[in-house]
Structure formats: structure tokens, C-alpha cells
Amino acid sequence: MLAERTPPLPYRAEVQAARRGDRSAFETLVRSVQRPVYGLCLRLLRTEAEASEVAQEAFLRAYQNLHRYDASKPFDLWVLAIARNLCLDLLRRRTRMVTENVDDMHEALPSGEASQEEGVIVAEERRSLESAMATLSVEDREVLGLYYVQKRTTKEIAAVMGVAPGTIMARLFRAREKLRKRMTVQPEELA
Amino acid sequence: MNCPDLETLLFDQAAGSGESLEHARTCPACAALLEEHRQLEKDLFRLADPLPPVDLVARVMHRVAAEPMPLRAEMRVGLPILAATLMAAVLSFVATRGPIGLLGASAARALVSWANTLSGVGNAIHAAWSTTAVPLALSLSAVLLLSLVGLRRVAPPRTVEIEVIP
Asked: What percent of chain B has pLDDT over 90?
């Protein structure tokens, strides 16, 4: 398990410059946190176009509300929380039944580590892991994605999700158990 | 001993110690479950976020460029505080013409003075009305009428849009 650590607040200077109207500083911020923000959006929404659109909107909202940002808290978590709320709003607005194409998810959520160096078997295992994750609920995908994929601490996850830190581990265990059960199901049953 | 519930088992596994782990050492089912979770965690930690679209930053900055400059938080908080402080300083100076400790006494004096002034103005109006009621009413009406005429000349004429239906 990850040890709890104090957030280092690495973006303080850029945030201050952006607040003074320096757009290039804001661009630096966007570059720095775009991957986790987009990654979370994609994990929750499961379509690349929507994830890109919501990530853009999250950054725009962050820019518009820079004066409200509490500089004592990590900037990336603040943007992640904005993105998460936008994703949940969009998911609530969806009128159609959620019948995501799991095959698209395989392409949309590749493992970031050097897949070329890995054997086909390992790559296939990861694909099946992503497939199984894709069948979980939004809440389960979110907590697993933030903890294991983004390597966030339980405190950070609690800050993004707006819940008590003490509840995160229990959520994580439940989500992991569901995932374990899904992993034991044959791929044909998942599809 | 009965098998512990899964949450207890996983909490103890995360903590690295606990009664349930002692149990798992002698229980093949619990040991297998823990091993599956350990392996699953290992696999999960290997996953990483996908790369965002290459034009994501450009798209964001294009939208940001259309936005007004963000108002600084210090400005939002600082300006009202500065204005209130200045106003308080000016008022205390005007009212006391000296140390701020005399503000209460000066305020009381000003209140009495304004009350006297208001009373005097009331008496003057009453005296004027009782002696020259008709000329005063006519003068006030004339002033009101002239003001209305002046306002009408100053105000721009109203334009009425008429939709022409062919």
C-alpha cells in the first residue's frame, strides 16, 4: 500500500504567475497535469471525444476560477476534482443506456509502460484487466484508477472525491474484490 | 476459528499484521484469496494513464485566450478592505479632527447639531408656509414644471421599431 505523504505543492509559482495574468504559466500548468486529468475523464466517461472535451472544460473552469483556488492545496487535485464533477454531471445527463464498447476501451486505455518490451502474454493480461475494470461502476473505476493508476494517496483521493479519507480504503477493497471476481469470469462473459 | 470477513482480511493485509493474517496462515482458502489480491494489486500498479490527445493543450489555450484575465484573489479581498479602511480613516478624521478616541463624543455632538439643524429647518418651513402659502405653492409648482420640461428636452426621444410585413 502507498504510504501517506504530504503534498509537495509543486505548481505554486505557476499558479501565482497565472493569477497575475501570465497565460504561458497557465499553459505550463495544463501541460503538467493534462495526463492525469484526461486519464480520469477517460476512465469515467470511456469515450475519447468526451474525455477530451470534459478535460478542456475542466481546465477552462480552473482558469476562470483561479481566484477561488486555495493555494495551500495541490493544484492538480483541484483540477481533478473539477474534472470529476464535470464527468459525473455528464454521466447523469446521459439519457442513453450505458452500453460502452469494451473493445474501444482496450484501445483508449493502454498501459503507459513500455509495452514493446513486454511479452504478448503480459500485454494481454493488462488488456483483460482494463476490460474487467471497464465493467465496474463509475465509483469503483474512479477509486481504482486514482489509487493504482495515478498512485494517489487515500488523502488525495478523498480530497478529489470530497469524502472522508477513512472511507477510501474500504471503497478500494470493495472495488478490488469486485474486480477480482470479474477477473475470474471468462472474457466471453464480460463482453 | 471461522474465516474472517474479507474487509478485515484486506485491512490486515494492508497493515501487515493482525489476527486474520494469523488465521490465513493455516487456512488455505483465505491464503489463496490474499494471494489473488496481492497479485491483482501488483498488476493494477503496472497500469498507467493514457496519453492525452496531442492538441489538448492547444485547444485549452485557444479557449483560455478568449477569456478575460482572471481577477486576482488578493484584489478581490484587498480592494474592499482598503476602501473600508480609507473610509473609516477619513470619517474618523472629519468627525474627530484628532485622535480616534474622541470619535464617540464627536458623533454625539454631530447628532445633536444635526437635530438642531433639522428642527430649525422645520420651523423655517412652517413659518414660511403660514405667512406665504399661496406664492410658495405657485413657486414650487413652477419649479417642478420647468424641471419636467427640461428633463424631456434632455432625454433622447423614444424610438419605436415597426415590423413591416410584406
From this structure: 36
Q: Which of residues 42-71 of A touch B (CB under 8 A)?
A: 42, 48, 52, 55-56, 59-60, 63-69
* Tens-place pLDDT, residues A98-126: 445 544 554 555 555 555 555 676 778 88
CB contact under 8 A, B64 and A144: no
C-alpha cell at A138: 463509475
Q: Using one digit for the tens of pLDDT, what is the confidence trace for A14-65? A: 998 998 889 999 999 999 999 999 999 999 999 999 999 999 999 999 999 9
The C-alpha atoms of residue B127 and residue B118 are separated, in whole angstroms, by 14
Cβ neighbours for A153, distance < 8 A, ≥ 6 positions apart: A2, A3, A4, A5
Element (H, E) at A170: helix A168-184
Q: Determine the topology of domain A9-96 in CATH.
A: Rna Polymerase Sigma Factor; Chain: A (1.10.1740)
- Alpha carbon A18 to chain centroid distance? 24
Note whether ipTM > 0.95 here: no
Q: pTM here?
A: 0.66
Whole-number pLDDT of residue A118: 55
Cell of B103: 470619535
Instruction: Give the CB-side neighbour count of residue B124, counting CA atoms within 13 A.
Output: 6
Residue identified by cell 405667512 is B131
Residue of B nearest to A143 (CA): B44
Say yes or no: domain A119-191 is CATH 1.10.10.10: yes
Task: Work out the average pLDDT over A161-166.
Answer: 92
Which of A:145-164 have CB within 8 Å of B?
148-151
Residues whose CB is less than 8 angstroms from the CB of residue B43 and which lie 6 or more positions away in sequence, other chains included: A125, A126, A129
pLDDT digits over A14-27, tens only? 998 998 889 999 99
Give the Cα separation of A99 and B14 in Å (integer): 35
Exposed / middle / buried, residue A157 (Cβ in 10 Å: 0-12, 13-18, 19+): buried
Contacts of A71 (CB under 8 A, 6+ apart): A9, A12, A15, A16
